[in-house]
Amino acid sequence: MAEDDVTIIGGGIVGLATAHALLRADPGKRITVLEKESAVGSHQTGRNSGVLHSGLYYPPGSAKARFARAGAEEMYRFCAEHGVPVRRLGKLVVATRAEQLPRLAELARRGAANGVRLSELDGSGIAEREPRVRGLRALLVPDAGITDFGAVSRVLADLLAERGVAVRRGTELVAARRDGDGLVLTTTTGEVRTRLAVNCAGLHSDTVAELAGTRPAARILPFRGEYYETTAAAHELVRALVYPVPDPAFPFLGVHFTRMIDGGLHVGPNAVPALAREGYDWRTWSGPHLRRLLGDPGLRSLAKRYWRTGAAEIARSAAKPLFVRAARELLPALRGADLVPAAAGVRAQAVRPDGTLVDDFLVHEDERWIHVLNAPSPAATASLRIGADIAERVTAHLG
């Protein structure tokens, strides 16, 4: 059986970008990508808002801050080169109440420290850019944009196939073992021998780490983000991207407005605990997943800490008028009749054993594995830069 130099578990945008970066560094490297679904980018990659983030939100010096800005510019170039639709729309982050102004000022400080181009707008400046949006002050981030990360993934997969990389769809990892100086990976379509494996399994990254014999530093808690889209008559209520000032205690950005690459307008998401790793609605649940949640002290601690926030998010999920009320803080002209349900996504959020949310990208390495244990937003934006970073780690391992 032929042996790979590197096998990547997960055909989302980070896994594919890693394979792409490895080939750019060494075109002769033997690489296989394993993807359990029939298509690449089926979960977090293809079910997000498509926003190219600029690095505004993240603590200076963090991996998110370092990778987002450079990664966004690299993604703009990649899309232009390969014919993937992309638009640099700009984004407003809007304070609607006086108590939000200090948080907006902190975002401005972070953005400046991270090298993000931005300017501050007063109420009249907001009205000039977004006539129907209400706010006291806002940050304008001109380099935020929109693309289709699912399309990016398909292009990456095609480029890899042209260069001889096997992207094995419909292939799920079920076991792994050491064998001399390498690994034997048992999958649903046969065994794979490899010198090194890279875990880019997203929603299942902690499970893959456990299969590899590693006790992960954090467990994945899936949060579902539910969206609405506006009717055609309401598409022009917002011109570009409009966000509220986020709650610094919670790693989500709040209900916002996204001008999609196809011209539609999406509203959302909320953030509710998913009842399965791939629980895209309340009807989809997993007994083993729920038992694990109930038995994990870190996740119980998280629930105890954030129960009020969680209850409010669940209420907005159950009652559309509450969701509309949250959106109307920014856009008073919005009506419930303007919104129809859109496809939901699930975000893989890593939680530490003490119940704290992992706020940055998290990578764990051992002798034969590199595990990407936390890669939430802005991972799609920064995926080409993240892939290059992982490729450098692979090169250090293999020599």
TrEMBL record:
Gene Ontology MF annotations: (S)-2-hydroxyglutarate dehydrogenase activity; L-malate dehydrogenase (quinone) activity
Highest taxon of the lineage: Bacteria
GO cellular component, one term: cytoplasm
Cofactor: FAD
The protein's Enzyme Commission number: 1.1.3.-, 1.1.5.4
Enzyme class: oxidoreductase
Keyword annotations from UniProtKB, A to Z: FAD, Flavoprotein, Oxidoreductase
Boundaries of every FAD dependent oxidoreductase domain copy: 5-393
Pfam families: DAO (PF01266)
InterPro entries in alphabetical order: FAD-dep_OxRdtase, FAD/NAD-bd_sf
Family per similarity comment: Belongs to the L2HGDH family.
Protein name per its UniProtKB record: Malate dehydrogenase (Quinone)/L-2-hydroxyglutarate oxidase
Provenance organism: Saccharopolyspora gloriosae
